[in-house]
Amino acid sequence: MSARPSLVVIGGGPRGTGVIERIAANAGELYGDTPLDLHVVDPHPPGGGRIWRPDQSPLLWMNSMAEDVTMFTDETVELAGPVVAGPALDAWADDVRAGRVTPDADPAVLAEIHGLTGSDFPTRRLQSAYLRWTYERARAALPPGVTVHEHRTTALAVTGPRGGRQRVRLQDRPEPLLADLVVLTIGHLDAEEEPEQAGLGDFARRHGLVHLPPDFTADSDLGALRPGEPVIVRGFGLAFVDLMVLLTEGRGGRHEDGVYLPSGREPVLYVGSRRGVPYHAKIGYAWTGERPPLPRHLGPDWTEAALRSAGPLDFRRDVWPAVVKELGHAHYHRLFTAHPERTALAHEVFAGKYAAADPGSPELAALVAEAVPDPADRLDLDALDRPLDGVRHPSPDALQDALRAYITDDLARRHDPGHSEDLAVFLGLLSAYAQLVRLGDIGGWWHGFFSYLASGPPGPRLHQLLALSRAGVVRFLGADLTVEADEERGLFRARSATVPGAVTEARALVEARLPDPSLRHTASPLLRALRDEGAAVTGSGLLSVDPADSRVLDRTGRPHPRRFALGPFTTARNSGAFTRPRTGGPAFRQNDAAARAALAFLRDLSCPGRLPS
């Protein structure tokens, strides 16, 4: 085994690629031409990794427009290292069309790239080509002394002393990789079945039913869902959208002029969730005019004060009021500056009183009521979060009509610049997320709320959902969905608070969501081993990392000098897989800090006395 310094990146998807890009960007300053072996471990091709691998159905889209996706830093990012400009996805497609870039893609994907515009929602296989190109560009930018080794396999464990080389055990080779540093960027996790899911799975096996637990939809065994049969679907987010597409167009159906023409091979999807409604559609217009000054009420000073507070933070008590204040600031700033005819007070007067009022106070409510006459123009986050709370319908058919009207109204509003305060709230959500990621594990509710409001499906997907509903291929169940196993009848039974007394029975149940990013139930032997060895795991099951540089923490809070972790399974989880250009994405900041810490460690490794004990 070579004695050259060695860095192992476990996970070659977008996060691993981003870390390698930052290693290349910072190596000149911090590492120079010293030799280094850089190992990339992933069973899937580097760049896209598992989720963004190239061999996916062309029916599966990203849920972001091409102009809103970048893998490269800009001057809005808080960095210690250098900004290295690079094209967003739409600009990269321009480069391909102009012959400046030649991507590694098959002819069908090349055709997609040549037709791509900034406002299109690209396929995931097209995004895979962009990610692969980004990885190859980062690899080419590494200093000549860095040798890259790709291992198309799975890492099973990382062992080794704090003060010595780590041993990375791989699935298909007897000898481990020796590493001076290890960076975990393994992305979304498979999970062992939680007790409820295990019980439902046992019930399904005993009665010859179908139960699909939480999973990446493209990897689920959808062939077990039979044409024409009812399927209970629990979950109404992006995993449901993928399921809906693969079981309709993926089985030969077609959408024409707002009408769905079935193939006859579709099951009937009965879908419900906690909220009972789909995620809000992506906003379908561009920003114009003055942006709200962000952050304002939830900035670095507030975050630092929260981190210094005594005792653990309670999200609802300690954090949520500041989020509400920040989102309200964004909403009303836009309303007053872009739509002043819907306000009844001078903006500067309102802004001063708003800043002074306590979140949730009667004074703040009175101020908003005075300044914004129409209640529809006021920001009500509780109503946005739970639109079906207290709503009851006399029959399932009445619910279908009502929910189609709700989705139609949402689509109209999200594509109407006359409601551009919604886009301002989106910007406020991005700003708030960038601050709250510094707090570590604040529970899963915030991440779910952010995704529901800011990371929903493309508008065309909701138009397709409406067409499928009118065709009877999708049926809505409502909010507060519960599913039980009926042992006597050998069926799944679903009930919702929205239609009291209504019961849906089916021989198939699909959990339309990704597994929780929890180390308590992870199927990853690597993360289970880290957990059992003493890495700190929060109450939500996230791996605790140092917010300064993403080093893995032990149960005493001590950072491991040779192990880093970044991604959704850590306390530094981010709002999405990709960053919008010019939004200061916190993932870039984290990647840069981890890369710089790693390079400084590897540099000092060869200098006796420079490494801390």
From TrEMBL:
Domain spans labelled FAD-dependent urate hydroxylase HpyO/Asp monooxygenase CreE-like FAD/NAD(P)-binding: 8-188
SUPFAM superfamilies: Nucleotide-binding domain (SSF51971)
Superkingdom field: Bacteria
Designated name of the protein: Adenylate cyclase
